[in-house]
User: Fold these one by one.
Assistant:
Number 1:
Amino acid sequence: MPITMRQVGPCFAAEVDGLDLGKPLSRDEIDAVHAGMDRYAVLVFHDQKITDEQQLAFTRSLGDIEHSIGTSLRGPDEYRLPTTFADVSNLDKDNKVFARDDRPRLFGLGNRLWHSDSSFKVTPAKYSLLRAVSIPSKGGNTEFADMRAGYDTLDEETKAEIEELVCEHSQLYSRAILGFTDFTDEERLRFKPVRQCLVRTHPVTKRKSLYLASHAGGILGWPVPEARAFLRDLIEHATQRQFVYAHKWAVNDLVMWDNRQTMHRARPFPANEPRDMRRTTLAGDGPTAPQAAA
Ligand SMILES: [Fe+2]
């Protein structure tokens, strides 16, 4: 069956037919997936009744896995999934829904702010692959914004101003936006800021993107309030509705996005209902900016 990609919503998202992600992909199929990602940046695969192992195998066929270690407030003995997965569910290690005031849940609410996965790591993520195992009765959409369109529609003066800017990203910043500042000294050290370019160029298409996230809490050389006001304006610009695709999940959907070209956010859902979403992540090629001396 040939692979087809059909645009959904704004032009950066497409539904893919003709691929069974539970089976090993041929070289041609892998190339088609990468080409689709380069073109669209968000690909939707429906009705993929696959296991965790099959999701991992599909992810590995596309590149190197990024492990999730120490990026949440789950303790070492509180992981529900192996570190090959980012657990973006609202479930504890016994598959019970977190209490409303559990710290890992409150920390995880940061995913409701626009972000790019792992922009708080020195080498940020390339693709994320998120599979819906169980979904709530309502809400819980994931929204995506096209950062190429966000860049393209800036005026020339702003493009020139941001070309060389470097931002500082940390989960401490994104959580502080929601009033979550209750971190231990160990956590503050673990979540210390990293540097990311504000403008990224796609290695294949050469298109430029805004590289934004709610994790960005400063711009090198700028006063903090001015930087945050400026970044807030850029995010507001880049997430106008005409640049946004809202994905309404069905069980067994797998959605893959390019973190270099998009931002995304989770939308609210009833806090007492399970939402079991399992993310595998492809590692990026390297840092986007030189880091501060240790
Ligand atoms: Fe995310």
Note: Residues 42 and 257 are 4 Å apart (CA to CA).
Number 2:
Amino acid sequence: MKRDYEYIVLGLGGLGSGAAYWLARTAGAEVLGLEQFELGHLRGESQDHSRIIRLSYHTPAYVRLAKRAYESWAELEKEAKESVVLRTGGLDIGPRQSAIQLATYAESMHSEGVEYESLEAAEIMRRWPQFRLTDEIHGLYQADGGIAMAARANAAHQRMAREHGARLKERVAVTDVRAASGEVDVTAGGASYRCRRLVVAAGPWSNQILDFFGLHLPLEITQEQVTYFDTPHLRDFEPGRFPIWIWMNDPRYYGFPVFGERGTKIAQDVGGKPVTLDTRTFEPDPENLRRVEDFARRYLPSALGPVIYSKTCLYTLTPDRNFVIDSVPGHDNVVVAIGAGHAFKFASVIGRILSELAIDGETPSEVSPFSIKRPLLQEKDPTRTYLM
Ligand SMILES: Cc1cc2nc3c(=O)[nH]c(=O)nc-3n(C[C@H](O)[C@H](O)[C@H](O)COP(=O)(O)OP(=O)(O)OC[C@H]3O[C@@H](n4cnc5c(N)ncnc54)[C@H](O)[C@@H]3O)c2cc1C
């Protein structure tokens, strides 16, 4: 059987669109992308106006990856001639006694030469009087933090992949994947395609695809939600006047300046219930919304207003919340990425790494923390630690 494409990308959400773009920069028309729904659909993980992007992370390795993430977005922006990242500044705040230690974030940034400021509550409120904080709150400010414009970035990756010659097919579900004499056969939408390398970026559907290789990872899918609030203080929450922020405690909350809608956006991280692909709904959870409103009423009251809408979305969580970026054991020609509920900011660089692994078999980025063979992923019922 003749080979149809050098590279096939399975799944064109955030990560797969990134992979299709970076592959197409090198391999052009040798790239096929397959997406089961329409491009830009809302059933996965990647589609909203905004996702947080930041250099502030808890380990130096993540800070290094975040630096390469900004570089990768900048390359896309240059080629696509449009912006997909908006720097608003980023604020990590929380109580001094907290489930998440800001010191680990500060040390990681320091060791990677990233400039940041440590701020006391009074200084935070002087700069952003929108916050109501008591003295036991402190924070870190990093000027590069901001918004990755998710929907727009996905469309830019897809458009530029096509401009480089890639074929992206929507509404074709992959229903079978088989190793075939050192290559891979993929069945989708009634057709069969053979490729030299397969890139899997299937988000919450990852285990369905890994199943073709006899693999099942202990992933937990949760139904998350974000809410847009019709604040009467719109000007106070414009980008430029207000940063993206993360409340560093358990539970963890996060929010955005006004962007994409006529209001603020606030959510709880891992505030959703475990679901399956069959049990997920598109109904927001009122309890989750109540927690978000209670939090904001206390610390950020002027951001609140009538709910414009809450939007559901899925997380695909590994037990340690680290990504999977690796080849499938026993199948070096199949590479896979799973985003663990914080990958959008890295969508372009993860796509780039997947393309490097598929084309060269290696990447300059450190992917060892994201090994599919790490012991925790071999356990059936591992301890889950989602705060990081
Ligand atoms: C509410 C919410 C807030 C978030 N906030 C942030 C944030 O602020 N910052 C951040 O960095 N990250 C954030 N994330 C996480 C980030 O959005 C995800 O990690 C990232 O989008 C994952 O992208 P993905 O491509 O892996 O998954 P998806 O976007 O779900 O893409 C997978 C694609 O594969 C397709 N597919 C699956 N199976 C098949 C098949 N058999 N055939 C064909 N196609 C198939 C699916 O249809 C889907 O389009 C957030 C996520 C949510 C839900």
Note: Residues 218 and 380 are 6 Å apart (CA to CA).
Number 3:
Amino acid sequence: MAPLTRRKLLAGGVPLLGAGAAVLHGAVPHQHPWEGDAHAAEGMSGADGMHAGHDSGGHASFRDGRTVDHAANGFDPHEVVRDFDWGTTRRMPSGRVVREWELVATDREIEIAPGVRFAAWTYNGRVPGPTLRAREGELLRISFVNGSEHPHTIHFHGIHPAEMDGVPGVGAGQIEPGGRTVYEFDALPAGVHLYHCHVRPLAEHIAKGLHGAFIIDPKDGREEADELVLVMNGFDTNFDRANEFYAANTIGFAYMDRPIEVKRDELVRVYLINALEFDLINSFHLHGNLFHYFPTGTSKEPSELTDTVMLCQGQRGILEWRFPHPGRFMFHAHQSEFTELGWQGFFEVGG
Ligand SMILES: [Cu+2]
């Protein structure tokens, strides 16, 4: 029997209404990627018996309660969400601050869902890569070491000279395995940006894990807040250029299993980035509240007060709100398909 992928299921003419809804409803629980054709994909093992938890009666998760071994991965989405890497600084004679990081590309297998191994390409061993954070106007110096078996670069969004753009054929160009280079530019403009590899095939290099958040604070800062970073991404585990798993910060359902704790009435600021490949858009939806949205974080005036934003690949923004009510509030992609395949979580608002 030909394998039925979720793409074929959605694109293959299965009617979504009436009698067809029953077909879809019946088919979906048996066609989760971790038990269907994806199962045979190289590098996947130990995924037997996995089901999304909407079969389980509880909240969506993985049925038997197993969770990803974050310690073995070497990164934990609960730490990633509040982990801002300010690098190291020194002051030049002129008084200007130079901020420096070292980013090393490595090939390593990570567990993206319980029992599902993915041969990732990483910056500093994690997906997403470290959240690099600087202040507007500083001089930034990023040493890039390619410890991977494939050529890579780091392409930063923001304003910089052409030779620092991290694309093949310009400046240092493509960095071969064992090679290194230094990217140096001014921290401009203030906002939430991203960085990613820019070697072809581009979608694969980004989707394998070579992407991360890059935040530049305005010179006069922002209002004190509980700050979070959510990098929306996904994983194509069977190499069909469609994602089988979706998440914010790589591990699907991680914030369902363990909600992100925030305080009532405290300002919450989310740096939201869409690093998803193979799907044209992604989105963020907040329950029980609305947020101010600052596209790319480049203006201090919000463009909108809303509860849902849609982002194309590479789009990003800042979200700000306060929870007036305690309790558990969901956040998730408003494409239900993405939600069911991992991209959902809870905020736990303490009284
Ligand atoms: Cu690459």
Note: The radius of gyration is 21 Å.
Number 4:
Amino acid sequence: MVRSLATVTPADPESASKRRLAAAVDSARDEILDLSRRIHDHPEVAFEEEQAATWVAEILAHHGFTVEHPAGRLATAIRATRPGGRGGSAPRIGILAEYDALPGLGHGCGHNTMAASGVGAAIALASISDELPGEIVFFGTPAEERGSGKQIMIDDGLFEGIDAALLFHPCDRNHVQSFPLASEDVEVAFHGLQAHAAADPWKGKNALDAMILLFSSVGLWRQQLKPDARVHGIIQEGGTAANIIPDRTKAWFMLRSPDLADYEALKARFRELAEAAALATSTTVDVSFSGGATTMKANATLERRWVENAAAYGIQDQGPDPNSGSTDMANVSWVCPTIHPELSIAPAGTPGHSILFRDAAATPQADETTLLAATLVAQTALELFRDPALVAAAWRDFRGESPAGPLR
Ligand SMILES: [Zn+2]
């Protein structure tokens, strides 16, 4: 259970500044939690997070950040900067926040708590910016649940010159290490020919038959897949009427694997299954992959700092989650030192992407975790601002020059 922020004294030499960050989060408590609840109450799906991004940008501007919104080509992306009062261009520490919801579910991944904690961390750091060198750089990153907003922001050059990327993700347990699966969204569309389904069905080419064959092939394929591979999809268009041979069907699949070579093999095989279904039904098929599939590069230096900062608040790291999803924070991890720590907002065993997790993301426990996460992100960033050697060590990890020792 998370202890109250006010009762905790982090036991390290920088504790005075860290306590001030905790106090800054506490004094912005209402603003942070109001943002979390507003976003939770107004879920917006990937690339459409207009209200959430506007609210986030407004708060950052109010706290003295120079806000780019939109940032790059994405209308709902934000980059907000605030220079440290001690001058210099380094380090530039990135604080990331997500805010997209899941279609038909709402905030079943709890990204409202991420937006709020990222904003909380940024405004806490801003409150002591006179003491900091370099620059605080906040990134509002759209579209984590579909496509990869962060990869687009990387391609737009928004992460150039960033020395570290920090965020928090909600979970049902506490752990800093993640091994997200390489993943892509796959759009599959079969094209056939309409005909009257009773009077002259032999004149049609049935795009729904093709789709059913593809799902059957995927189901049979699972026997030959490695246990850690994932293939899952939904039919988005299955025809328009029972008395018309469907000329168009559309599905949204996802492929995932913890191994990039295995992933490429999955992708090739999936395309063959789709083409085979088209061949068998005299239809044609378009298969398009969203791109950007990658695994995460761990950074032991940053992970250790997070674990120690969390331990000062009584948080025991429970080790990596054996059941991984995917995140585009993995894409950022190949650009600069990155961590993807997770803290519990829900009882252990609560499934992600569920009504239970969605409801947990707007509870007093989620609120306290959001505030703690803001504090820990800010405190970990503070260490990087204060200690160039720590930034250098994180980059040595990134370059593979310091073989990452075991975390514990
Ligand atoms: Zn998520």
Note: Confidence is low (pLDDT under 50) at residues 1-8.
